[in-house]
């Protein structure tokens, strides 16, 4: 089950050369993951309020392949690679049309209120495509 987020590159996203600043790709894919969860009906604010649990990035392995520039229209594609009891591995890519600009493997963990690993709630795992 995948998700696509469309976005545009704004001046604030670029460096002095007019190229998207490398760290902004991490923001773009964060937005992609957030909108993917929203699309599944998962409200992260409610999850934190009701259970004290949050999702946090544990690891990112990123490849910057081609630059994006001011006013480019981009697509952030997000797909689940693997779901464990407390961890999700995702594949994320940023495209300009058919051209792959950036790709990353992102490991997300579920944390309890004190910052310790926690099981992803069964209902959330189920909507993500994992076992209940």
CATH architecture label: Roll
Oligomer: single chain
Instruction: Quickly count the helices.
Output: 3
Distance between the termini: 16 Å
What percent of the residues sit in helical stretches (DSSP H or I)? 25-40%
The CATH superfamily is known as Hotdog Thioesterase
**Number of DSSP E strands:** 5
Rg to the nearest angstrom? Answer: 16 Å
CATH class: Alpha Beta
Order of helices and strands: EHHEEEEH
Q: Major β-sheet, in short?
A: 5 strands, antiparallel
Range of strand content: 35-45%
Give the CA-based shape: elongated
Kindly name the structural category.
alpha+beta
How many domains is the backbone divided into? 1
CATH topology: Thiol Ester Dehydrase, Chain A
Report strand order across the widest sheet: 1-3-4-5-2
Spans where pLDDT lies below 50 across 5 or more residues: none
Average pLDDT score? 94
What key phrases describe this protein's structure?
5 strands, about 130 residues, about 25% helix, alpha+beta, Thiol Ester Dehydrase, Chain A
Describe this structure in words.
It contains three helices and five strands. It is 25% helix and 39% strand. The chain has one domain: Thiol Ester Dehydrase, Chain A (Roll), CATH 3.10.129. It has a five-stranded antiparallel beta sheet with strand order 1-3-4-5-2. Strand 3 and strand 4 (87-96) form a beta hairpin. The chain has helices spanning 22-39, 44-51, 122-128; strands at 2-8, 54-64, 73-83, 87-96, 99-111. The longest helix has 18 residues, at 22-39. It has 132 residues and is α+β, with helices and mostly antiparallel strands.
């Amino acid at each position: 089950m995948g998700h696509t987020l469309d976005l545009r590159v704004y001046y604030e996203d670029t460096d002095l050369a007019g190229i998207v600043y490398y760290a902004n790709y991490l923001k773009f894919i964060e937005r992609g993951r957030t909108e993917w969860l929203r699309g599944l009906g998962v409200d992260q604010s409610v999850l934190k309020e009701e259970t004290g649990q949050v999702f946090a990035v544990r690891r990112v392995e990123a490849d910057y392949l081609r630059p994006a520039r001011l006013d480019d229209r981009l697509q952030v594609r997000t797909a689940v690679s693997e779901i464990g009891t407390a961890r999700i591995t995702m594949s994320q890519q940023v495209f300009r049309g058919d051209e792959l600009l950036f790709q990353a493997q992102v490991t997300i963990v579920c944390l309890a209120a004190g910052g310790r690993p926690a099981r992803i709630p069964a209902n959330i795992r189920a909507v993500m495509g994992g076992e209940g």
